Amino acid sequence: SFVLLLVAPIYALAPSTETLLVLQALVLGLAALPLYRLARSILENEWQALMVAGIWLSHPAVGGANFYDFHPIAFSPLFLFTAAHFWWNQRWRPFWVSIVLLLSVKEELSIIVILFGVVTLMSGNRRQGALLVAAGATAFVVLQHVVIPHFAGGAHSYAWYYEDMIPHGEGPRGLLTTVLLNPVFTLEFALTQPKLLYVFQLFA
Known about the structure:
By secondary structure, the chain is mainly α. The protein is 74% helix and 0% strand.
């Protein structure tokens, strides 16, 4: 997570666990500001925009993430909401700064950049849309296949999340095989009681 390069000087001034936790709480709270501005632009109603920001600040998932360790991914809502705000208002220079910051958090966020590109293409802006799709795809390939293996000392895959669905030794391709050829087992794996409870809690 290259965003930790921004954290390092702050941590150097006060090297403690509390510094990281306070910083995490701060960036999660600050994310409400661009979210409010985005909601105000879309809804054209300040009170409704305040309600949207309030929902973010009071959501159990946000609070839960803040109370459980320090995670660089906590920076992503601030950059994502900022990017969405600038995208909605077609302010492309600050939008691209937000996209670069978003990509500095974690490699899978490049997929969100690609989706930004798809929506931009659908809105009729082919130049910006194509640039976003290319940037997201390039970032994913470079981070996943060059940067992470370099620092981790080997290949990196998310397949271990789904190891119960992958026949021994088959890797990610085995996951696709299981999904396509054994949909009943796949549904049983996806719809376990703890997972359904988690989804219910998110939306409750």
